[in-house]
Amino acid sequence: MKQKKDDVEVLKGVSRSFFLSLRVLPAPMRRGASLGYLLARTSDTLADSVGLPVAVRSEWLMRFKKAVAEKSAAPRWPICLINAASDPKERRLLECSGEIFERLRDLPVEEACLVQEVLEIITDGQLLDLQIFAEASQQHPIALPDAATLEDYTWKVAGSVGAFWTKLGFLTLGPQFSTAAESELIERGVAYGKGLQLVNILRDMPADLAAGRCYLPVKDPQRVPELLEAHAHWLTLARRWISEGESYAKELSSWRLRLGTVLPALIAVDTLKLLQDVSWEALQKRPKIPRWRVYLLLLRAIF
User: Fold this and answer.
1) CA distance 226 to 229
2) CATH number of residue 246's parent domain
3) Inter-residue contact 51 to 20 (CB < 8 Å)
4) Which of 100, 118, 137, 138 places its Cα 20 to 30 Å from the Cα of 189?
5) Are residues 161 and 120 in the same domain?
6) What confidence score (pLDDT) does residue 290 get?
């Protein structure tokens, strides 16, 4: 089944770098990867609809999780949920849920099982997020309790995607995906995904704090010096995890696979440079790689 033009536009709307990655993937892998991403962004939109109470978001996220597990029809979102999506492109994503779930039912069984597996893990992470920060506010921020909780969270919402990507590649392409051991690539892919999520956490720390959420395990999330110290510590780990992504890409068998896989790592490396020794004032401006730089990195990845 060909990817519909509308789906392409939805993908482009909700992601800059991942849309480019998906476009260059070999065709056999593209459908499952695109669908997994659209479903993950849908669940993320549900979890992040901050205009609604946590209990309402949790309820609809669990309904979504059940619908994916059963390959049933998409939940019928209430108008209040659709309107709570702050970005028009995310509202469009929710409105396309019916077609997205149809695509899940049309996937070959083994591919659909991989999509269902990764979405179960991702939604568990998002539900955990809602549970931990249920009482958080800007006046009373809550921090994750320890490093193990942060690593578990990054595994659930992003590291699992690295494992999914690897399993899908071997399922749809076999040795044309890679001649490396699948278990080795899964381990690297998990680290890569965790690294990408950690980069987002480090970049978005002030914005998350404004909503009462501190993903770094600190004693007092209102003390800027402690936050910056933790930021520098986790920056080192993020750099190591991202380097696993670059090593992962080198093990892939074709230039299309390498290009589609390495681009987020190149963007993450540039972002980490912006975050190195950053001041709190600069961090509050949310350092971000400009669009022209993303396309320059794409050219670098190609050549």
Assistant:
1) 5
2) 1.10.600.10
3) no
4) 100
5) no
6) 80
